[in-house]
Every structure is written in C-alpha cells, then in structure tokens.
C-alpha cells in the first residue's frame, strides 16, 4: 500500500472509529487529522494554521451574527409578533409553519447566498416558533436545514461564483438565472414532503383564514417586519453586503427589543448573549477543526482520486450521470463545499459535457450535491448549525431529515436528467 | 512533502543511479491552470521534469485548494514541508517583512512592461528574490514574472481620473493600496473577494481593481463593464521555495530549478502580453467600455504622498527601479 | 476514597469563576465583532465615522478567539456534538469508560495544541504581520490555538475528574 493510501485510511478510519466511540466530533476530526499528519511526517503546526484559517472567512461571520439576531428576537418579543403574523397567513393550513419556513428560505436565499447563514438566521427564529406551535423540534430543524439549501441555488450564491470562475468561460449571470427554477422545485418537493409528514404527525391547524386578522397582525408586527425589510432592502439596494447585514440586523433587533417592545432590558441582553455564546461554542469549533480535515484530504488528493475513479467505468450516459452525482454526494459527506467545487470541477466537468450535460446545468448539479453534503454526517456544517440552533441531537435531526433527503434527491434527478429545469430561464435572456 | 519516495516501479537492472532518488515538490497556485500564471506554473513544471529526467516532480495544486496566498505563505513559513513551493504575487511578501518586494507594488512605478522586465532581468532581481531568505523567513524566490497591469473597473461609466472621485472602490486591505485609493479621491472599501461580484451587482461598492485577465475570468465585466487602463501596479509574481526543500536538493537539482525558472520566466514574458491583448480585444468585442489613459502624470501626482511615505525606507533602491525604464 | 474527593471538590468554586471569566470574554468578543462590522458599514456613509482597512482582519481574529474559548466552555457543559445513537444499547459503565477514553484523547489534543500552537504562533509572529496593520505581529492571529489548548486542559481536567469520581463513588455506594 502506498504512503498516500495508508494516510487516507488512517485519516478516515480513525475518524469513524472515534465517532463511534462517542468522541466529540469536533475533536475527533482534529485527532484523525493529527494521526494522518504524523504518519505522513508532516508538521503538526498544520493543525494550528488550518484551525485559524477555517474560522477566518468573512462570510462565515454572518453565522454568529444571525444567531445573535435570532436569540435577541426570540427574547425581545419580535419573534412573538412574527408568529402571530405567520399564523394569520398560513395557520389555516396543516403544516403551515413548515411552509413558511420553506418559502422564507427561498427569499432569504436571495439575500445571504449561504446555507449556513440561512440556517443560523431563519433557524434561530423559526425553530423556536415552530416548537412553540406544537411542531416537533427534530422535524422543525430538519425542515430548516433542508430548505436552507434553496439559498445555495437562488442567486446570489457565492458558491456559484466559485464554480463559474473555476470552470472558466461561464457567465455568472446565466448561472445565477439557472438557479431560480431548481430552487423552486426543491421548495415544492420539500413542501409536499412536509405536508405529508404534518398530516401524519397531526401537526396543528389554527383558526380559519381571516383577512381582518391578517391586516391587524400586519399592523401589530410592524417593527418586527421592519427587521426583515431592513436586511432585504439593505442588501438588495447595495447599502451593505449579506455578511454586514447580519450585524446591522443585530443592532436593529437590539434596538426594537429594548426600546420599542421592551421585552428586554440591558441586563437581559447581557444574559441573552450567553445563549448565543453557548450555541456558537458548539458550531464554530467544528468549522475550525473540519478545516484541518479538509486540508489533509485535499493534500492527499482524495477528491481527485474519487473523481478519477469514475473515469472509464462506463460509457452509458445515464449511469455516468448517476455516478457523477454519487461521487459528489460521497465527497460532500466528508468535505466542505468550496474545496469540492475547486478540485472536482476540472475533472468532472469534461465528463459531464461529454454526455451532453451543459456546464451551467452541471454547475447547478454540483452545487445541490454539495448542498446535500452540508446536511449529512459526519461532516456537515449546516447539520451542525441546525442541531445547535434547534438544540436537537445530531442523530435525531438526521433521522427526521431522512424523508427530506429523498425530496432533495428527487430534485437532483430532475436537474440531472431534464436540462430545461436549469437552462430554460437563462435561455429567455440570451 | 519533498520527502523521498521509492520509485513506483523497480528500475530495470543495469541503470538506476541509486544516489538520485525521486523527489516530489508540492507547489501551490491560487489561480486555475488555464490562467497566465497557471500556464507559467505548467511551463516550469514541465521544464523541471524534462531537465531532471522525471527525477524531480512538481505537484501543482491549483485553483487555491491549498488556500489563499497568505495561507500558503503561512504554511511555508511554518516549515515542515506541507507546501514546498508556490507561485505568489511579490506583493504578498509585504506582510512578511518584504521591504524590497514592497517596492514592486508601489503605485505607478513601472511605466510599461519593458520597464518591469528590465528590473526582472537586472542584477537587482536576485537580491530582491533572496530577501525573504536573508530576512530569516525560510523561503527564497526563484524567478520573477507578471500577470499584467492592474486597472480599475467600475459599475458606472468613467472616462477620466476625476470620475473616480467619491466612489467606493474595493482594494485589498493593505495600507499602500488604501492610501492610493484615498489619494485618487475615492474611498477604499473592505469587501471579501468572494462577495465582490455580488457587492458590485448590488452597488455596495462602485468598483474594484484587478489585472485584465482576472477581471474577465471572475466575470466582473458582467456587473462592472467599465475598465480604465490606469495600470496603477504591475502584478509582479514570483515563485518561492522553502529553504528546507531547497537544502534537500543536490546542487545539480538546484541548478535544474534555476534553469527551469529562467525558462518559465521567459515563457511568462512571452505569453502575458499576448494573452492580455487577446483578453482586451475580447472584452472590447463584448462591449466593455475600455478607457485608455493618455497621460499618467496626474494619477502619479495624486498619489505622490503615498509613494513617498511607502518608499521612505528604501529611497535609493526605489530610485534605481524607477530609473530602469 | 470519598474524603479525597471531598477535598478536591473544594476547588469547584475556582472552576465556576474561571468559567465565568471565559464566558465574559466570549460575550465581549462577540459584541466587539458586531460593533466593528456596524462601524465599517456606517463609516461608508457617515464621514466622521471611520471605515478602517483593518476591520475585516480584526473581526476575524476576534471570532477565532471566541470560537476556541467558547469551545472550551462547551467541554464543561458537555455540550459538544457527538454520536449518541447507540447509547441506549450500551451499559452505563461502558459509556463512562468511553467518556474517559475520549476525555483523555481530547486532553492529549489540547496539549498538542498548546505545544505546536505556541511554536507556530511565535514562529509566524517573528516572520509576519497583519496585512492591514504592518505593525501588528501575526502572533496574535495564531495565539488563539495555544490559548484554546490551555482552556481545554483546564476544563477537561475537571470533566475527567468528575468521570473518574463517578466510578469510585458509585463503587463505594455498593
Ligand atoms: Na429554512
Ligand atoms: Na456532510
């Protein structure tokens, strides 16, 4: 066995053993990397460097800020008002709050472009709201994290920019347009999935729809809605970036909670910050240590090996298309999105085009595959954030997400085999 | 790393100079391989492998998979052989005590390509390349190249320097670049590179600056189709190797690297002007509003203060470079 | 046996204080991050508010400190995400043993982080600075790693002690 294969075996093998031995995943990831580095004779200082590098991403900053915003909204009375409003809108429908979650992710995706930020922001507001309304916490978290993947497809999407740049010669504008329909299909399939589950689990149904009540609730929740508005208008109008919008949203929620709804005093704010730190304490370290793991995997050429593995396996275009998805899904289980896109694009895109998949269509496939990877154990940042924000154990979230994985795979197959899903909208603007 | 590895197949009997084991050097590149710099990397790699008869392998990890230039330098300076070599912008060494390297990225220093190459082939160049080694940083430069002049591009149409006044321009966060933007009457704005496309689209920033090839490959013309060819800095690049990896090589192998470096440097010189002109033509054909700058003097005047304070420690050396035109 | 434990248990208030101090720091870092980011946005539109070039790097460094320090707190709260799916099939003793094994492993990792983290921070500190602040050593960028190691050791020792105490105290009870 070559040094590389042994190093890969040590990395992945020791990691899975430690996970099953109930090691905290954040530290199991770091230890597995440490063993592999030791075996390869590489310096352990890599651990220090990659941990810091892992946290030092400006777009990641949105996560702590949005979690803080959500917690402030929850304790300061803003969420309460939004619950009443949401109820007035969709309370008549079984599973209405799940629909709200899914639809808001579609729109919020148009702001943040990041599934992690989406789960952090909407999750920390909506999961407590849903639980409050009688939904199970694991279901609420599962709906939140899966629908956050819409944000990867709805423009703007940082990962699509990365793909376009890596692939070369692809218009980011067209790629952006290509994301709207697949994201909508994903949303619809998730809605169908959650409706079925809501009926099965007998989730609550509120009073009948009343336009007067709706108008009343709109008026009552003016200040709460303004929070949403500030973020949307601010980002779309180019006042600040998505990441910055998170900080602005914190300041605004603070202002409304303390001075307008008076749900919190300054002491209360200080106390509430503890909840934020508690949540962040679980999430950020995972992102930091996963970065070491990703670096070791990259340096060992694992994504390259995996991608090369499907070359020459078959000439059948359907099988090949399925294999493309499979390899990306497997990589997604253990790696973060950006490195997968950076490494596999050059290997897999030629295969995809050889069987008639358009580069734009492939970009959408790639992004959704990696998005599913963000929701899968053992390494999945969105899964971790969801689990921390929803305060539900990882296994329970994964179990509750099982039916939604199915919805996502159906969407993925539609994208893979029906080019028009991705290409129709951009073709209108050519 | 650059550890020695047994050859994949046992050598046939009779040959096999046992004292020259195969060596693999891990080489980091931030850009994809099809860019000017990526092609330069490949030229270097192929020459090294040719000259060494395949005994020295260069493992190029492109597209930034090993991290940004600063990440890569942090790994290289930390030692231990995680990354042995890298192609970086000379500018990146500024935050690692590269006082000399800094001079290469002072705004409006090089008047044209010739000027830069006069420097890159002068006696001064080796001294500059060895600066990090002499500083005790543990890396040394092998050769210089360039990825073309950096220019400003904006969302709104522009035709002259004055049009930049009051605009929010995204530049890297180092003090000299920030000073330059202020000197031009605009305000430097911090935006992460990954958010730049969206930031231009929504209008968080009014413009940014990149070499022409990067401007196109990052699809910025889609959202900021106005390019003013002020050429404030020349994107000087260099290939660095850790002292650790260097010292493991025999003198012969070191010579091979230097030889291949010379070749890659010339290759880079040949293709970068060609490639840049080609991209510029494409951009014009795509409808990008390309503005030529007839007289660069007012731009130079505008940022005089920044140039003076940034070169204060190395006045004579800087003058030498300026005089090479 | 319990006597020893009673003696050692007297150190618990010190741990409570340590926890509070670290928590205080984490909250402060979070606030600083939010304020700097807000200031950078405001500074773009309001001339007397600065929009400094260092905002991004400082915000990221603060986040790194918060990430690692708060992670050490999570050790004490036993809040880190781990796979607990098979817990109900395992005997209690077994889980306790597994906990102790993982605690020792994390302790070892913490020591590695202190040693290599310190070495790396000092080395890089002597060789580089922040990009936006040439005057500020890169040491501070990597110092969170050894610092995290120290905080992890502190809280891991307590956790480990509690687990071991769990074994003995239970046996005494029998
Ligand atoms: Na959601
Ligand atoms: Na995953």
UniProtKB/TrEMBL annotation, chain A:
Keywords: Cell inner membrane, Cell membrane, Membrane, Transmembrane, Transmembrane helix. GO terms for cellular component: plasma membrane. It is a multi-pass membrane protein. It is found in: Cell inner membrane. Residues 12-420 form the TRAP C4-dicarboxylate transport system permease DctM subunit domain. The chain crosses the membrane at residues 7-35, 55-75, 175-197, 218-240, 246-264, 276-297, 309-331, 338-357, 363-390, 402-425. InterPro entries: DctM (IPR010656), TRAP_DctM (IPR004681). The keyword Coiled coil does not apply. One of its GO terms (molecular function) is transmembrane transporter activity. Its main location: membrane. Pfam families: DctM. This is TRAP C4-dicarboxylate transport system permease DctM subunit domain-containing protein. It comes from Geosporobacter ferrireducens.
TrEMBL record, chain C:
Residues 34-165 form the Tripartite ATP-independent periplasmic transporters DctQ component domain. It is a multi-pass membrane protein. The keyword Endoplasmic reticulum does not apply. Its main location: membrane. Pfam families: DctQ. GO terms for cellular component: plasma membrane. Keywords: Cell inner membrane, Cell membrane, Membrane, Transmembrane, Transmembrane helix, Transport. The chain crosses the membrane at residues 21-46, 58-75, 96-120, 140-161. It is found in: Cell inner membrane. One of its GO terms (biological process) is C4-dicarboxylate transport. One of its GO terms (molecular function) is transmembrane transporter activity. Belongs to the TRAP transporter small permease family. This is C4-dicarboxylate ABC transporter permease. It comes from Geosporobacter ferrireducens. The lineage of its organism: Bacteria, Bacillati, Bacillota, Clostridia, Peptostreptococcales.
């Amino acid at each position: 066995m070559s040094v590389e294969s042994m190093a890969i075996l040590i990395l992945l093998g020791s990691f899975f053993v430690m996970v099953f031995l109930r090691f905290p995943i954040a530290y199991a990831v770091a230890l597995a990397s440490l063993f592999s580095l030791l075996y390869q004779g590489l310096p352990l200082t890599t651990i220090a460097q990659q941990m810091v590098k892992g946290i030092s991403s400006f777009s990641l900053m949105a996560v702590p800020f949005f979690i803080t915003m959500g917690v402030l909204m929850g304790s300061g009375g803003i969420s309460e008002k939004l619950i009443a409003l949401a109820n007035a809108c969709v309370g008549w429908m079984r599973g209405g709050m799940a629909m709200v979650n899914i639809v808001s992710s579609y729109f919020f995706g148009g702001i943040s472009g990041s599934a992690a930020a989406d789960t952090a922001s909407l999750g920390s507001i909506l999961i407590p709201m849903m639980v409050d309304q009688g939904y199970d916490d694991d279901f609420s978290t599962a709906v939140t994290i899966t629908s956050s993947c819409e944000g990867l497809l709805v423009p703007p999407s940082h990962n699509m920019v990365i793909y376009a740049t890596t692939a070369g010669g692809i218009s980011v504008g067209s790629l952006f347009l290509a994301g709207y329909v697949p994201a909508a299909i994903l949303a619809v399939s998730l809605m169908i999935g959650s409706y079925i589950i809501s009926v099965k689990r007998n989730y609550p149904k509120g009073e009948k729809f009343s336009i007067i009540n709706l108008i009343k609730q709109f008026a009552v929740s003016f200040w709460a809605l303004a929070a949403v508005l500030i973020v949307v208008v601010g980002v779309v109008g180019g006042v600040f970036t998505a990441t910055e919008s998170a900080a602005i949203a914190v300041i605004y929620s603070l202002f409304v909670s303390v001075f307008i709804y008076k749900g919190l005093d300054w002491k209360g704010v200080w106390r509430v910050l503890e909840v934020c730190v508690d949540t962040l304490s679980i999430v950020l370290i995972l992102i930091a240590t996963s970065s070491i793991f990703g670096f070791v995997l990259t340096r060992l050429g694992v994504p390259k090996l995996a991608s090369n593995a499907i070359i020459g396996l078959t000439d059948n275009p359907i099988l090949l298309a399925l294999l493309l998805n499979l390899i990306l899904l497997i990589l997604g289980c253990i790696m973060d999105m950006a490195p997968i896109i950076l490494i596999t694009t050059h290997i897999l895109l030629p295969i995809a085009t050889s069987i008639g998949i358009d580069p734009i269509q492939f970009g959408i496939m790639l992004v959704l595959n990696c998005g599913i990877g963000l929701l899968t154990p053992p390494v999945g940042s969105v899964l971790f954030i969801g689990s921390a924000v929803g305060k539900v154990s990882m296994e329970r979230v994964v179990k509750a997400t099982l039916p939604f994985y199915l919805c996502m795979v159906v969407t993925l197959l539609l994208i893979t085999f029906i080019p028009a899903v991705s290409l129709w909208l951009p073709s209108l603007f050519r | 790393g650059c550890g020695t590895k047994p050859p994949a197949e046992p050598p046939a009997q009779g040959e096999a100079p046992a004292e020259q084991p195969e060596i693999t050097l891990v080489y980091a590149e931030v850009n994809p391989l099809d860019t000017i710099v990526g092609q330069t990397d490949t030229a270097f790699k192929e020459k090294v492998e040719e000259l060494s008869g395949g005994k020295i392998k260069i493992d190029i990890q492109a597209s930034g998979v090993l991290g940004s230039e600063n990440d890569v330098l942090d790994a290289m300076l930390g030692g231990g052989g995680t990354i042995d070599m890298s192609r970086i912008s000379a500018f990146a060494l500024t935050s690692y005590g590269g006082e000399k390297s800094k001079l290469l990225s002072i705004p409006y220093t090089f008047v044209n390509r010739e000027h830069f190459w006069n420097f890159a082939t002068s006696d001064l160049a080796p001294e500059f390349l060895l600066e990090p080694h002499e500083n005790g940083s543990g890396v040394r430069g092998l050769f210089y190249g360039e990825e073309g002049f950096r220019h400003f591009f904006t969302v709104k149409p522009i035709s002259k320097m004055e049009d930049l006044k009051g605009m929010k321009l995204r530049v890297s966060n180092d003090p000299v670049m920030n000073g330059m933007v202020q000197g031009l009457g605009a305000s430097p704005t911090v935006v992460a590179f990954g958010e730049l496309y969206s930031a231009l689209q929504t209008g968080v920033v009014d413009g940014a600056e990149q070499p022409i090839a990067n401007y196109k490959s990052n699809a910025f013309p889609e959202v900021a189709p106005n390019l003013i060819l002020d050429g404030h800095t020349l994107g000087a690049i260099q290939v660095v190797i850790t002292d650790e990896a260097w010292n493991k090589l025999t003198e012969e192998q070191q010579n091979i690297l230097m030889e291949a470096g010379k070749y890659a440097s010339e290759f880079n010189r040949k293709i970068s002007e060609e490639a840049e002109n080609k991209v510029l033509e494409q951009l014009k054909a795509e409808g990008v509003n390309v503005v030529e700058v007839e007289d660069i003097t007012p731009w130079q005047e505008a940022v005089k203060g920044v140039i003076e304070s940034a070169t204060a420690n190395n006045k004579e050396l800087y003058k030498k470079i300026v005089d090479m035109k | 046996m319990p006597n020893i434990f009673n003696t050692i248990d007297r150190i618990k208030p010190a741990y409570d204080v340590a926890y509070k101090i670290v928590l205080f720091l984490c909250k402060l870092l979070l606030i600083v991050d939010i304020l700097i980011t807000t200031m950078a946005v405001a500074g773009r539109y309001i001339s007397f508010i600065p929009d400094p070039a260092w905002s991004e790097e400082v915000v990221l460094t603060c986040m790194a400190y918060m990430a690692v320090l708060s992670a050490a707190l999570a050790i004490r709260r036993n809040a880190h995400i781990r796979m607990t799916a098979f817990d109900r099939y395992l005997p209690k003793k077994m889980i306790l043993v597994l906990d102790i094994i993982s605690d020792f492993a994390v302790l070892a990792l913490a020591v590695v982080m202190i040693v290599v983290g310190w070495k790396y921070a000092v080395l890089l500190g002597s060789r580089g600075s922040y990009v936006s602040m040439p005057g500020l050593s890169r040491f501070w960028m990597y110092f969170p790693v050894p610092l995290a190691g120290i905080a992890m050791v502190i809280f891991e020792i307590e956790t480990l002690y509690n687990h071991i105490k769990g074994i003995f105290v239970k046996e005494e009870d029998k």
